[in-house]
Amino acid sequence: MSDRREPFAVRYNPPRGRPQKVVFEPRSAGGWDRITYEKRRGRWRITGEEIVADVGLETGSVAIGE
C-alpha cells in the first residue's frame, strides 16, 4: 500500500456537548500531529495537540495507512 501522507479529519457530534474534530497532519520529520478541536460559537477551537508516530484510518473494508 502506498503512503498517502495527506492530512485528514474526523468530525463527530456527541449526544451531549459541542461538536468535536480530530485532525491528523503529517510532520516533515516523520510522524503526525494530532490536533483536537471543539466547536464554540461557530468556530473550531483547539483543545489539545500531540505528536503520534503512526496513524491508520479504517472504514468498512478499506484501510488507509498502517
How would you explain this protein's 3D organization?
The chain has 66 residues and is mainly beta. Helix content is 0%, strand content 59%. The protein is built from no helices and 6 strands. The radius of gyration is 13 Å and the shape is globular.
Radius of gyration, in Å, reads 13 Å
Please describe the biggest sheet, giving its number of strands, its sense, and whether it closes into a barrel: 4 strands, antiparallel
Order of helices and strands: EEEEEE
Task: Report the average pLDDT across residues.
Answer: 88
Properties at a glance:
single chain, 66 residues, 4-stranded antiparallel β-sheet, globular
Architecture blueprint of SSEs:
Layout: E1 8-12, E2 20-26, E3 32-40, E4 43-52, E5 56-59, E6 62-65
Antiparallel strand pairs: 1-2, 2-3, 3-4, 5-6
